[in-house]
Amino acid sequence: MSPTDSYTRFVNRPFGKQVAKTIGLPRPVPLRRHTQGDRLASGSILVIGESDAGNTVAEQLWAESYDVRRDPGLKQKFSAIIVAFDDAAHPSDLSERVLQVSAALRGLEPNGRVITIFRDPQDSSISSDANRIAVRHSVEGFTRSLAKEMRFGATTNGIILGQDVTMAAPAALAALRFFLSGRSAYVAGQFLTVSSSAGAVPADWDTPLADMVIVVTGAARGIGEAISETLARDGATVIGVDMPPAGEALTTVMNRVGGIAVQMDITDENAGNELLRMAEQRFGRLDGIVHNAGITRDKLLANMDAARWDSLIAVNITAPLRINEQLLAALGQGVVAENFRITALASTSGIAGNRGQTNYAAAKAGIMGMTQALAGQLAKTGGSINAVAPGFIETAMTDAMPAATREVARRMNSLQQGGRPVDVAEAIALFHTDAAAGINGTTLRVCGQSMVGK
Ligand code: NAD
What we know:
By secondary structure, the chain is α/β, with parallel strands linked by helices. It has 15 helices and 13 strands. It has a seven-stranded parallel β-sheet with strand order 9-8-7-10-11-12-13, sandwiched between helices. Strands 2-1-3-4-5-6 form a six-stranded parallel β-sheet, with helices on both faces.
């Protein structure tokens, strides 16, 4: 497995670039990824829209010494274009700002960002206002389509402000920073909905998880390993869990990130209570859990047997449900923090369905249901739960696919390449910050805007 696939390396060399251009083949580019201390943007940021949200964004970025422009100008280069539509009342209000985006697009740098900001179409205070509901849906459609027109690693994503939520809300600012930075490298055509003003901005945006203790299941390799590294990079102490046969790999990862290794099968009836006991003994606290451990047992349903179905459901959905129950029974009683944060790995298969994966898709759709169901309970004390749905991620699992199938899956998205485990980890890390508390009960796709599903 290579960090950049061989086709991407080929088309980024002069000869390969020429061949791809001549015969119209995909031309993926290496994506900009985050390293500690990186600025959100290296060049100018254009902020379009003299609305509440537009003005708040411009002021925030000015305060951090970014080169903020409010006008596309002539032949200007931009690292990012942010367009606020929060005051739009009718689809005919979009034209002026959309055309400003159009004028600026040619100046968008490789790996640049376009971010739309608009209000929630589900907002109950406008439930019978067809004009306002229409325009909010219009911005959604605009954002998804523009995301498909991006080139050279650039992305378009949207921030949705819920009822009474302003752009100054901690989670709105956290979403803005996520989409601007290299942390969202493989997120395209997606939305973060900020449903409340809960949460607090961190003292240092580089270590937003400082002092937190977070459990990561399936931490010995793949996406779980990357999640452990990313949470530790952002300041957290990780309790890494994996099966006894993966014990050695788990210890290696935990030594690297300064965490503790726990050999455990998450399907054990008492797994949640045992984790609680261990967190109490070692740290006296537990701030969150990442339900990452998962298995595949692919078979067409006509050939499915009980072992394949039952083992997959047990690991991928029954265990997270039971562990949550055990941990949440202790919510606010000392060890489990009041602002406890849960994240879980879903999958685009759980959204769109996938041939040969009835068991996997059932479990992953269940994860998204669990996320919606527990959001209200967690929000009462300042907690949250969110899911991340990866598309094609370069791991040992996808490396084992037949070459032709793999190559097709890799290119079937707006960025024309597979994502990396760290791309999933960055989204998980965002949801564990206190700043993101106002994002709750959602599923974020990290899939390069895969053609699969919505
Ligand atoms: P992986 O197989 O590389 O790693 C999964 C880890 O979970 C392994 O270390 C395994 O030992 C552990 N595990 C499995 N069963 C366990 C159990 N009962 N108790 C404790 N640990 C257990 O998988 P990955 O590709 O890194 O995927 C991680 C998560 O992301 C999974 O939930 C997967 O469904 C999801 N996902 C992955 C992709 C992808 O493209 N790789 C796409 C969508 C979703």
